Amino acid sequence: MFASATAEQAAVHGRMFAQRYARFPNIVWMTGGDYSPETDDPAAGSDSDHVLRGMLEGIRAAGSDRPFSIQLGPQKSLSTDNPFWEPLADWNFVYTYLPTYKAVLDGYQRPAGARDPRPAVFSEGNYEGENNQPDTAPTTDETLRRQALWALTSGSPGEFRGSDDWEFRDGWESRLDTPAVTQLEAIRDLWASWAWWQLVPDVDEPFVLDGRGTRSTDDEMVDVLDDDYVTAARTPDGSLAVVYVPTQRTIRLERALIPPGATLGWIDPADAAAPSLPAEIDRDGNVATPGTNVDGDRDWLLVVEA
Q1: Which InterPro entries match (predicted)?
Q2: Residue 114 — pLDDT band, cuts 50, 70, 90?
């Protein structure tokens, strides 16, 4: 819509837009969308950068201080990757078709700057019904669970789900409540039942000592289902720890970080509303996943609660 607009015209639009939605408390601002500006000087910004910033300036001039971010281009990006937008983004729009923990942790562990720390939110990955990596398996419910749970145990304060029905394919009305929708809704309700904002990613791996698999350290295109790294997060006081185990295995926990009397349970991420299964831990801290979940897959969520 801004193809032929000036920054001044965009500012007028931004002011009007912010005034129209001023009464809504639950919105954030985001621009871009697979956005890769063409410029020889990214820090100075392209013409389109300045037009989009004009709209943001209009929003701010209208008195709106709602958090702002920008979605840059695939296959993996953070809003702060672009030097023009880095000082303007209030939260990092994490966009990745790779295993999500990598990009979220990249955002979480950014070197502290003038505006950091700031949230790194998993905002777009593989959609239900789509897979943007050629020659890989179709996106499944397990793909969507992995994306969400990897993100939530890597520092993301939330996650987004997409569907190929953004194209309004025939029969889209019948796919508003798919099994994936039900599964992710239950995972969100589960997360909301905890003090999730206190969870700190187990980045240096002091809690899960063995059985984690290999952590991705580059941006090589790997399908979500071809990575099996275990992610974990725990509160500083140890009263809650959550470990996402994508495939069947035995992991070893640091028993000294488990409070006396804490309970360990396996939650089926394909049915997170169901009661948890008891998790047995031996004196060395070894815990084995229980087998297949209700979807016939082998991903599980281990929860330690004091």
Answers
A1: Apiosidase-like_cat_dom
A2: low
Cα–Cα nearest to 207, from 236, 171, 174: 236
Q: What is the number of alpha carbons within 13 Å of residue 58 lying toward its C-beta? A: 21
Q: Are 153 and 299 in contact (CB under 8 A)?
A: no
pLDDT by residue (tens digit) across 213-245?
999 989 888 899 999 999 999 999 999 999 999
Please name each of the domains of the chain with its CATH number. Answer: 7-198 (no CATH), 208-305 (2.60.40)
Tokens 């983004």 map to which residue? 89
Give the span between the Cα atoms of 119 and 153, in whole angstroms.
14
Question: Residue 170 and residue 233: Cα distance in Å, rounded?
Answer: 41
Q: Which helix (H) or strand (E) holds 303?
A: strand 300-305
Beta bridge partners of 201: 233
- Neighbouring residues of 135: CB distance < 8 A, sequence distance ≥ 6: none
Q: How far apart are CA 86 and CA 69, in angstroms?
A: 9
Exposure string over 268-284, b if 16+ CB within 10 A, otherwise e: bbbebeeebbebebeee
- What percent of the chain is predicted at pLDDT more than 70? 99
DSSP 246: -
Q: Under a CB-based contact definition with an 8 Å cutoff, are residues 239 and 257 in contact?
A: no
- Tell me the average pLDDT of the chain: 94
pTM passes above 0.90:
yes
Angle between helices 141-152 and 100-108 (to 10 degrees): 20
Centre a 10 Å sphere on the Cβ of residue 40 and count the other Cβ atoms it contains. Answer: 6
Q: Pick the closest to residue 133 from 143, 145, 141 (CA basis).
A: 143
Residue 44 has pLDDT above 80, yes or no: yes
User: For 144, left (φ over 0), alpha (ψ -120 to 50), or beta?
Assistant: alpha
Lowest mean pLDDT among 130-139, 201-210, 222-231: 130-139
* Residue 205, token pair as written in the block: 């791996």
